[in-house]
Fold this protein.
Amino acid sequence: MKLSEVGEFGLIARFAPAFLKKLPRNVVGIGDDCAVLPWTRRERLLVTTDMLVEDSHFLRKEISPRDLGDKSLAVNLSDIASMGGRPRWAFLSLGLPAGVEVEWVDEFFRGLGRAARAAGVRLVGGDTTKSPDRVVINIAVAGMVRPSRVKYRSGARVGDVIAVTGNLGDSGGGLRVLLERRRRGKDEKYLVHAHHRPRPHLDEGVWLGARTGVRAMMDVSDGIDSDLHRIMERSKCGAVVDLDRLPISAPLRRTAARSGWDPFEVAASGGEDYCLLATVAPESFEPVAAGFERRFGRRLAAIGEVRPAREGLSYRLGGRPVSLGRRGFDHFK
Ligand code: ADP
Ligand code: MG
C-alpha cells in the first residue's frame, strides 16, 4: 500500500497508539500541537517540532533566505502559542546541498535571528549535514506554560463557538499567486508576503490560554477544513462553519474575483495561516471576544459552532448547507 492511500494522518494513526501506551500520567504525547511534559511544580514544558523541505514546503527560487529563516521558526512558535504557552528555546537542524552559497545561509540565519529575538527565543543547539539536492530545515522549540492554562485539541464541547484570531486564506492565496505565476500587483504582493512571513499569534495564544471559557485551541496550519477534523477527532464532536463569517481580507477577495478562485475554498483549505483556532463556551464568547478586541484591536471572529460527532463537519452559506470544493492539505495525498 502506498502512503498516498493512507495519507499523513492515517499514517500517524498507524504508529502512534503503540507509543502512547503506558505513558506516565503527567506526560501528554503524540496528538496535539505540542507534547506537554513535567517541568517544575508551577510550569509544564511544551515541545514541538516541524520540518520544512524544499519544493514541498517552499520554493527556493521564490522565498528569500531571510524570510525562510523567519518562517521556519514562526511555524514552530505558532504551535507553542496554540497550547497557551511562551516559547523559550530552539534547536535547528539543517540539511544543505554543497552548492548552496554561504551568503544564502547567512541571510537565513539573519531572518531566523530576527524572529527569535522578537519572540524572546534563544537558539541553543541543532545539527548541520549535507543533503543531496534539497534544503531541509527542522526546528524544535520548547516553551513553558502554567498547567491550568494549557489548551488542548480535546477540550471542545457541543454548543461551543468556533473562532479564529486572524484572516484566513491570505497565505493560501499567496501560494496560488506563486504557482499560477500571476502578475503581482499590490494585492498579490500582500498575499505572497502573508505566505512568506506568517506572524505567530504568540500574545493571542497566551491571552486565550488564560481565559477559562476557551476550551480547545490549535493553530491553523493545514486550513480549517483539515484542522477542524483534528479538534473533532480529539474532542469526539462535529462542527458547522458559516462560510459567510470567515474573515477574508480585501486583497484576497479582490484577487479571487480577478483570478476565478472561490474565496471560501481558499480561506477554508488554503492552509499556513498560523492564526489560532479556538472553541469557546457559548456563555463566555461575548466577554472573551470583547476582551480580545480591547487587548488586540482586532476581532475574534466567530465562524461556526461545535456540533455532535454524528454530524461531522458541514458548511453553510446564507444559513443553507453547502459543500466545499477542495479539502485541507495532506502531505501524502
Ligand atoms: P502540527 O501541525 O501542529 O505540527 P499535526 O496535526 O501535523 O501537528 O500532527 C499531529 C501529531 O502527530 C502531533 O502531536 C505530532 O507531534 C505527531 N507526529 C507527527 N509526525 C510524527 C512522527 N513522525 N513521530 C512522532 N509523532 C509525530
Ligand atoms: Mg499545530
Summary: The pocket of magnesium ion (ligand 2) is lined by residues 33, 79, 82, 218-219, 221 (CB under 6 Å).
